[in-house]
Please model this.
Amino acid sequence: SAAFDDTWAAHPLRADLTSAAERHYRGGDAERGARRYLGACIAETGPFGEKFDGSLFLSYNGPEFDACLPDLPTLHIFSYKKGKTVKPWFVEEEVSA
Model:
C-alpha cells in the first residue's frame, strides 16, 4: 500500500533490515524480504502488546531494533561466547547418518 511504502521509505532501520535480509532471506529479493519482515513486525506490535500486557518480551535482536518490537519491557538475549549469537531459526539442523 502507499501508506506502507511511505513507512518503509522513512523507516530508520530500512538499511539494517535489508542487510539482514541479504544474509538470511531465502525468498528472493532482499528488500522484499525486509519489507515483509517489517510489515509483520508492525502487524504484530499491537496484538502482542495487548495480549501480553505486563509481560517481559525476549529478543535476540539488539536494542537498536527496538522500533520493530512490541511496546513491552524487553530483555535482549546475547551469548557470552563468540560465534554463538546466530538466531536459532537460522541454524541448519544437523542430520544424523
Observations:
- Strands lie at 57-59, 74-76.
